[in-house]
Amino acid sequence: MAGRGEMDCEMKNLSDQHVNVDTFRKLVRSYLDLHQYNAALFWADKAVTLSGDDPKDVYWLAQCMFYLKQYHRAVHLIRSKELDKTHPLCHYLTVKSLLAASCYSDALQLLTMVENDNSLSRTTRNTSIDSMGDGMMFADCPANLQSSILFLKGQVLEAMDNRELAADCYRQALRCDVFCYEAFEALIQHHMLSSWEEMELLDSIPYTEQCSSPAEATFLRQLYETKLNKYQGPPQQLLEMKSVKFQGQYPETPVLGSAASPSGSVFKSKLALDVSQSSTDSHKSAPCLDDSQPNLVIKLIPNNLDVIVSKAERLFYNCKFQSCLKLTEEVLKKDPYHSSCLCVHIGCLVELDKSNQLFYLAHRLVDLHPEMAISWFAVGCYYYIIGKSDPARRYLTKATVLDRLFGPAWLAFGHSFAAENEHDQAMSAYFKASQLMKGCHLPLLYIGLECGLTNSCKLADKFFLQAQNIAPQDPFVMHELGVIAFQNREYERAEKHFEDALKLVRSIDDSIAEKWEPLLNNLGHVSRKRCKFQTALEYHQQALVLRPLNPSTFSAMGYTHAMMGNTLEAVDCFHKALGLRRDDTFSTTMLTYVIEQLVDDTEPFEGAPDKMPPFRSKKVSTSRAHRIISYDDQNPDDASMNIDEEAGSTPPPMSDTANVSELANVTAGSSALSFEVEMHDSSSQTLDKDST
Amino acid sequence: MSDITFKFDLKQIKTEIQSAIIECSHRGLLHSTKWLAEMNIALKDVDINPAETTSPQSTCSLQGEDADLYTLAKTYFDLKELDRCAFYTEKSTSPKTRFLHLYSRYLSGERKKLHDMTDSTLPPDPTQNSSLRELSAELRVEYKDGKLDAYCLYLYGVVLKRLELVRDAQNILVEAIQKEPLHWGAWLELAALVSDQGSAPLTDIPNHWMKQFFLAHMYLEQQMNEAALEIYYLLQQNGFEKSSYITAQTAIASHNRREVDSAIATFRHLHKEDPYRLDNLDVYSNLLYVKELRVELSQLAHHVCEVDKYRVETCCVIGNYYSLRSEHQKAVLYFQRALKLNPQYLSAWTLMGHEFMEMKNTNAAIQSYRQAIEVNRRDYRAWYGLGQTYEILKMPYYCLHYYKQAQQLRPNDSRMLIALGETYEKLDKIQDALKCYFKARSVGDIEGIALLKMAKLYDKLQESENASAAYIEYVTDNESSQAGEKSEVSQAYKYLANYYIKRNMFDEAYQYAHKCLDYEDTREEGKALLKAVAQTRSQTDRELMVGNITMSC
């Protein structure tokens, strides 16, 4: 009896002492919410033991370990319970922990193993969640787990430097779940895709299937669109409410891509341009979700910081640094550490040479976020603009160490070498950047520039063409192509490139940004080479409007005038050029030459007679003659003009052609020199176009 | 110019001026306000009905917050806290505050440039103009949208002008004037541009009474002094006789015409009427300098120094004073001070160039002259100075170019022509040189050496007929005045004596040889010549006699 009584008692005790696991589970959640991970861990552990290794509890326990950065412990826990291949959430967490613990190959192994297992048991990808749930009695895992796993795989692959496959995974993830912004960001952030690939992606995302309403689909697409394609194409869409008008023009890249991507012929540029000209028409028929709708993004969340940052970025790429800076300042006022904005902001500060502001910003960032690459990037940029390359490089390296994929730092690293004419080192930095940012044409553009500066025009041309492949609508590339053609003395081609670039720049905005002054000057140079002197002068004049008081523009104008035989104007221009830059050898030589020619060209004074009039003494002469002289006194010009007309001679035509060609020969060397200077200008202008 | 009709309705003018004064002063356009106020006081005898004035309207246009903001901004502006003024007015849209915003930004940029100036022989670097460029880009956008009022247009024009975009600046200024013809500042800027370009766009200018002031001012700039004077006289006859501005302008015109005495008289009169007026006194000091009126200049220098030490005019007067006392170092110092105060001050640049020339510092002289030309391309003295400097540096081609520029600006000034001729002579272009001298003589030779130069050239060309004729004229010119250089005159006599001996015209030869005796350096030669004359004469006489004898035989 006693034994039975004991049993009863025990039973009673048990039910008395029965603890509800659910309370612990709740405790775990609440402590996790409050970020008290150790407490959560303690209770989760107890829950696991209590519930007898319930997978759900194991998952939470592992989660706690993950939060506590005990990645290996988490992996071990899940593995020891053998949940890593059967339970989707645990599977996900295992991979995530492995990734966090930098065990990439293990993570990949696990991923592929599970994938293979599952692919055997299911027919299509889309139903994978159901099939997995069938096997594993778990129905309440989040719907977007599938895409998260794919995204994770992408991350693992990317960490293993397998970028192609990684991009593929990201894309799949995005297709599984259109809201998986992280995958989208991973795709665009590191410039993995070229512009037409980006557009393809944008078109391939199944918005309509997964969104609840068409409006939402449109909203989503436009939201993504704001993030894309910043280098090219008329960007007004975001800046104006009348975006509908531009919509037809905007998604022109798919067509362009198909035209420009397959073949690598030299005349591709021409092809691409032809397409771009007709793209407006061709796209009327192209499927476009939002052709008929106003831009929802602008309408609904015009003040969202992300949208403003995209706007700013676009302004940045269109060289409107002032207005860009205004926007970024606004954003940073609301959110001082908005990371994507910071990048644009730093770029702007570099462009506008605001070293003081950059100094302050960099200091603040380093104090607060020494672990972020962008903080050190800011420091490096500061040293770069104050012209101290060594520290600049040191800090930029630090940024790249913190984040190997941080492209802007690599570019700036290259710039710091380029600024000191260390072409090879600059090139290697750019090469590194180009490996990291496959979809970005800037590294290629810079490599080309460096090649051009080291006089390997062929190579430069090749790189520019590659850059153009990626971004067929970037006027910077066209401009540089033109410069190379100019150096190769293919003036016709150069002119075409320059004109194309100008056309594009004009299509962006009627008022050309100041950055484009070299383009106009180069157009002037090339027009002069093609003997279109008047056009050349007009281009130079336009360049002066953009950047007044530029001595090289003045000497170019003087040179053109000299070729036209306008000696007086030439003298004037060279004088102005020398007034602005005193040690300009080209202008000095030219001025001496022209001023000597001027003496032969012009009469001693205005209205001077052709022949020396006979001398008549006042005293000896008759009173009539005296009167003539006194008449002379009052109106000397008229009198001598008459003499001139009587002589009936016209001044000889200015400097014959032989003379001009001789002139050109004489100064060929120095003109190349001046062009070199021009080149420097152009290189420095593209130099700071940091990608973000 | 007589076709200009002066039908002024003085009453209306006065009303217009008064409302313009308010507009300008509200916008901080001090110089225009001053000019208009002077005009207003010149018309003090004209009565206007106070009820007719429409001025208060504009002040009422600002209301509430705008008005408060404006008051704040104007206060900062007046206190020269320009950046602060610009900051507070950044978002404002009302025209006056907007103008204050832009204007204070412009002024602040200019002031910073001035402060950053390290070396006073150099102007601020014109390529360091990022603030100007920013401003012009902003104004360009607003201009395209048609948002600029007359005053902002004026500012846009000024900015463009500072960026050397002359053509655009001109168009914009004309537009500004069309919208607000009473803004004298805009007219002034336009005049500076037009005089650079020749008188092209005058057709677009509204036919306002202000146009007369503008035209006269422009003519004066372009050295068309007679035309300017004509307009000024007409203006004086038509109600503006009390304007000190016009009086000063007429004085400058006579200065340009080298009527030194009358110019001095006018200035003296002006100085008595308005003793604390410093404007244009530098021109007065130039005149005193030319006349070498030491006492007057000294008195003037001390007086202006007492009135305001730190005015460009004061510095120029003192500089001239020191220059007259041959203390060139000190003179340069004062001109530099003037330029520190205003690097755009033309005459200081030119005068400093002259001082450097005196000190044989050609490099600095060239610098200064060039700057003068940068400021105003119509400054013939600077061009001439450049020519002289390059002459010293033995660069005749450059020299010729500069003299030519100077001559174009003063077509009837013999000094440029002579200089041109001399340069041509150096380049062995005798014919061109002759042409220059000939023209110099025909426009009235100031220095009286054209003839001599011509004579020498004719001699060189062995055109002894012409040479002798020229010498004769030169000699007769100088006989009366006695001012010509002694050696030159004596050489002329020597040449003539030789010439006549060759021609066997002994009476003339004797006469000129005798004249040679009057001069130190040709006395001996004169004696020899006399002897030669006597000898050849006796010889020819003997021959003649022999001839006679044979004849009689």
From TrEMBL, chain A:
It comes from Frankliniella fusca. Residues 604-658 are annotated as: Disordered. TPR repeats lie at residues 475-508, 517-550, 551-584. PANTHER family: CELL DIVISION CYCLE 16,23,27 (PTHR12558), CELL DIVISION CYCLE PROTEIN 16 HOMOLOG (PTHR12558:SF9). Keywords: Cell cycle, Cell division, Mitosis, Repeat, TPR repeat, Ubl conjugation pathway. Pfam families: ANAPC3, TPR_10, TPR_8. Signal peptide: none annotated. One of its GO terms (biological process) is positive regulation of mitotic metaphase/anaphase transition. This is Cell division cycle protein 16-like protein. The keyword Ion transport does not apply.
UniProtKB/TrEMBL annotation, chain B:
Keywords: Cell cycle, Cell division, Mitosis, Repeat, TPR repeat, Ubl conjugation pathway. GO terms for biological process: anaphase-promoting complex-dependent catabolic process; cell division; positive regulation of mitotic metaphase/anaphase transition; protein ubiquitination. SMART domains: TPR. The keyword Endoplasmic reticulum does not apply. It comes from the Eukaryota. Residues 12-251 form the Cdc23 domain. Pathway: Protein modification; protein ubiquitination. Signal peptide: none annotated. TPR repeats lie at residues 312-345, 346-379, 490-523. InterPro entries: APC8, TPR-like_helical_dom_sf, TPR_rpt. The keyword Cell cycle applies. One of its GO terms (cellular component) is anaphase-promoting complex. Gene3D superfamilies: Tetratricopeptide repeat domain (1.25.40.10). Belongs to the APC8/CDC23 family. This is Cyclosome subunit 8. It comes from Frankliniella fusca.
